[in-house]
Design goal:
Layout (H helix, E strand, L loop, with lengths): L1 E6 L6 H16 L3 E5 L7 H4 L8 H5 L10 H4 L1 E2 L5 E3 L13 H14 L2 E5 L6 H8 L3 E6 L3 H16 L7 E6 L9 H8 L5 E3 L3 H10 L10 H20 L1
Parallel strand pairs: 1-5, 1-6, 2-4, 2-5, 6-7, 7-8
Antiparallel strand pairs: 3-4
Helix pairs in contact: 1-10, 5-6
This protein binds adenosine-5'-diphosphate (ADP) and magnesium ion (MG).
Length: about 240
């Protein structure tokens, strides 16, 4: 199963949710699980997990068209929780539009090796992130409860649909849903004309501890945030089980 997280704006928590959901899926299932960082230049999935990978997504896609499944383990880093990571490129200009087809091919190959492939697509819709959308069984749009995100959410839900993601594959996650001064969920749903699928509370202390120690939220002390991420991961796992 491929699950792609796409932010409606930088800083909405796309990487936080992608990394922690992936780690939680791994914890819940014990199944082979990989998180892939599509960001060019300064993707931080590996950093969130305290890893220093030797190879990146680019090293792997540059093996195409001769890429062999047997090569994949060489290019991924492993966190102590068992989650595998395909780190972001360290070139600022790549992955570039010319890499989009290679990314699609790579994701297809990875999904034959891993039960769960979680893609952090960042917050830009381009040829490469569209590759992550095309291959996804589920696309999660990540928004914060504020006016800019709401506006982008309306535009992105249309753009994502035009890019071929049918509404049954699309879910909306409202991150930092319980901050002060935010738009109420009911108001957001009314403007969007659809329901919010998951709401995740604001808890900077927990996410900052996770990032600064390289321990996913599922490995920290129990919190509301942890239970909500657990529920998100559980829903994705049951979607995969229902499909297989
Ligand atoms: N639920 C949350 N509660 C509090 N802070 C959060 C939450 N989710 C993310 N953050 C913080 O927001 C900032 C941006 O998160 P990040 O995952 O890097 O966003 P993005 O990948 O969308 O740019 C980080 O400082 C992160 O710790
Ligand atoms: Mg990010």
């Amino acid at each position: 199963m491929i699950v792609t997280f796409l932010g409606t704006k930088g800083g909405t928590g796309t990487t936080t949710l992608a990394v922690n959901t992936a780690a939680d899926i791994r914890r819940q299932t014990g199944r082979p699980t990989l998180v892939v960082d599509l960001k060019a230049g300064c993707g931080d999935v590996a950093v969130f997990l305290g890893l220093r990978p030797r190879f990146t997504l680019l090293d792997l896609i540059d093996q195409l068209p001769w890429m062999d499944r047997a090569l994949v383990p060489r290019y991924v880093a492993e966190h102590e929780c068992g989650l595998h990571v395909l780190a972001a490129a360290d070139e600022f200009g790549r992955p570039a539009p010319k890499d989009a087809e290679s990314i699609e091919q790579t994701l297809r190959c990875l999904s034959t090796i891993y039960d769960f492939v979680i893609v952090d697509a960042g917050s830009t819709l381009n040829a490469c992130t569209a590759a992550g959308l095309h291959q996804a069984d589920v696309v999660l749009l990540v928004a914060n409860p504020d006016v800019p995100c709401l506006r982008n959410l309306q535009r992105l839900t249309d753009a994502v649909r035009i890019a071929g993601v049918v509404s049954e594959r699309l879910r909306i996650v409202l991150n930092r849903a319980a901050d002060h001064g935010v738009l109420p969920v009911a108001q957001i749903e009314k403007v969007l004309g659809r329901t919010i699928d998951f709401a995740v509370t604001s808890d900077y202390r927990t996410v900052a501890t996770a990032v600064n120690t390289g321990v996913p939220v599922s490995g920290l002390r129990p919190s509301d945030l942890q239970s909500q991420l657990d529920a998100l991961a559980r829903t994705l796992v049951s979607t995969q089980m229902a499909a297989s």
